[in-house]
Predict the structure.
Amino acid sequence: MKERYSKGVQERKQEALVDRKLREAIERGEQRREKYGDNWQSVDLTEFAAKFAPGAEPEYHDGKIYFQSPGSDLRIVADVGGGYCRLEDTSLKGKNRYLGIDGTPLPHNIVGPNGKQRGMPPEMRKALTHFTIRKGN
């Protein structure tokens, strides 16, 4: 899986040399990783895909590579420029369709330090739904 991902990244980056829209999408992914990536957990893409998208073939759309097993609602969305991925439940809508590293949905609300319930802050949600893809595995 990691080899197919790496090959896809190389191919998309080559295409981006002549495709401005793709180049901009890849640059946006790089910027997201630079801005938020310090708080992200990391995954071995091969193990992650074996668990959530076994046997999936990569599909390429703009700056993303998708891995989804036939008949499954779970899809791994890998960002070409950012070198990270997310786990999406395609049966859900809105921002809460992205799952935690173990495949469980995140709560809509959290209890704050004052004991009151409030919506989960975007930074916290990003830290729990974005996973840096480990290099060299």
Q: What stands out?
A: Helices lie at 2-16, 20-36, 45-52, 122-129. The mean pLDDT is 93. Strands lie at 41-43, 59-61, 64-67, 74-79, 84-89, 98-99, 109-111, 117-119, 131-133.
